[in-house]
Amino acid sequence: LIITVPLILEKIYQKKLLPIISKPATQSLLKIPFLRNIVYTKIRKTMIASFGGNFKEIIVGGAAMSKEAEDFLHKAGLPFTIGYGMTECAPLISYDSHQDFVPTSCGRILEGIMEARIDSKEPTKVPGEIQVKGENVMKGYYKNPTATDAAFTEDGWLRTGDLGVLDSENRLYIKGRIKTMLLGANGQNIYPEEIEARLNNMPYVAESLIIKRKYRLVALIYPDIHEMEETNVSFEELESIMNNNRLLLNENLATFEQIGYIELRKEEFEKTPKKSIKRFLYSEDNGK
Question: H helices of the chain, where?
């Protein structure tokens, strides 16, 4: 087994595969079923070899994955799956083998080990907090009863702090974190992680953060410096490229999710030990 984070597969897709499949000749091949299968087989074999060849499947977790990269790699037949878990659950909550994996999902709740529910009136349609219980769930935080009480519901379910839905097969689909969810002008729920996953797959974007400023969504972007150096692109030229990224991204977003403007950063975002961006340092005006 190979266990990794989405960023690894996303960068392979962005840097190695996208330049190839974007060529007019390849696009033509992908429109013809027989030839498309040949292209997918070549890509799949090349990627499997690049990971060493001798493995059963790639398990991805820890963050949202770009839907574009996920969809293409799944069509190409790469043996990967996406799971969901947290340290408090030691650590797995849901998982499907790559043969059963459904794109955009995080697998089915571990049968016989974990139970999950969605704190929503329509748990299959309307996202709510994912709450779990089972033999893998912690009893509490060591010598911290206050944190333990806050982590559990009154009837003993662990609050994950994540938003999602469960389908009829008990398969989990995560939408984002409760504390990072933004509200649109008319009260619509906006999940910044989903937008960031798409944006991070666009040219010259290394990482991004979506915040709300005066009722507009703003994309803070740290550019891919290595790619800029390779193609001799300056920060001045980058502004035009990023604005084009914004326009292309907005074409595939709902009106209330669209990015108003982009701010470029010359320094990386500050990270946690788990390499997650410290959102609280940049999102102080999300409610304004």
Answer: 6-12, 18-21, 24-30, 33-50, 67-75, 145-151, 192-199, 225-231, 235-250
